[in-house]
Here is the input.
Amino acid sequence: MNADEIARRFGTPAYVYDLTEVRAACRALRDTLPRPHRLYYSLKANPHPVVAGTLAGQGCHAEVSSTGELAAALAAGFPPEHLLMTGPGKTGADIAGALAAGVRRFSAESAADLDRIETAARAAAVTTECLLRINADQPVPGMGLAMTGTASQFGTDLSAVLAAPERFRGRVTGLHLYMGTNIADEDTLLRQYEQSITIAAALGFELSELDLGGGFGAPYSVPGDRYAFPGLRSRLSALLDQHLAGWRHGRPGVSFESGRYLTGTCGRLITRVVDVKTSKGKTYAVLDSGVHHLGGMAGLRRLPRLQPRPHVGTGGDAQPYTLVGPLCTPLDTWAQGVTLPGLAAGDLLEIPNVGAYGLTASLLAFLGHPAPVEVVLDDGEPVHVSRLALHRTEVPVTTPTPTIPAGNNNKTNNNDKTKEYAR
Here is the structure.
């Protein structure tokens, strides 16, 4: 369904998600990874219930980092036993709520985080599986955005674990290592996995799961196809064979995470030109969408240059435009100096490859504009149309429920059974 028909039937701005592409991306990533493996979908990339539900239907598990993501994953159809709860700021109440919902697998970011998980599990009389997230002592060269290897809120420094392994050995069932994100180069991906695998082997913990994270890149807001990593499966399998010989039999089971690769190329944002004007020699195209709908991290200077596709133009001479939205702030700027055919009010632009880190990674509440309509297509036909709405809920004035304090490092009754991993 093209932009004209979407705009005519549903209005603008409009996010459009293609489930055919979601399934294709999932197949492509599974074909890239060693087998057997477990694949977690990171809800933060796109928590839309139909998009996430499609990945649940493809056999993915889910990685969640908040009570909101937990609720979204359950609503999308992920069984609670298929969820991994992560994040550096899990409170005792967060953990207790996840346990009550049936979650049993957690990633612990520190000794104190592990204490909180164990304390909550004892209070609920349940058994948990805890992965210890490790912050490597050295970054991997070539990372666009390094998650570990430097001072970080993520994970426990490897040197601290090596200095006191008894604080963790026997209390954790696995390791979680996530080195970087949005990596387009196969060699860089392999280097990060090699470092993670050698760390796991050197620690010598008895592990049921080794979560190697993700980092699989995808084009964002620019034209282009999914990236390919044709040699990754064979090269990574060889590394695992070398250092962790039992991995093919689930000792440990190997898992990966992805959000961007699975959903990035499924989405586009259709926006309409509201006004075109010139100020002091610069031509502005004012759109009905902006950083409140896409790229809200512009204020943190992390929004890349967008390359929109003009779908309907006046056909005039091409010229450079500064693309801005309707917000009352100069930060509402998508790109400057983008050369496009002559634009006029009413023309449509498409921003490609924004199925990940789009609407819910933006400044949706700022100024109170309505959210874009979200149109989900399957085989080219709309199967779900909705609009996200924010609302205020009154909270009774009561005494806050105390959070569950850290425990005393007592061991939980970890289950040593071999895990099942998707083949």
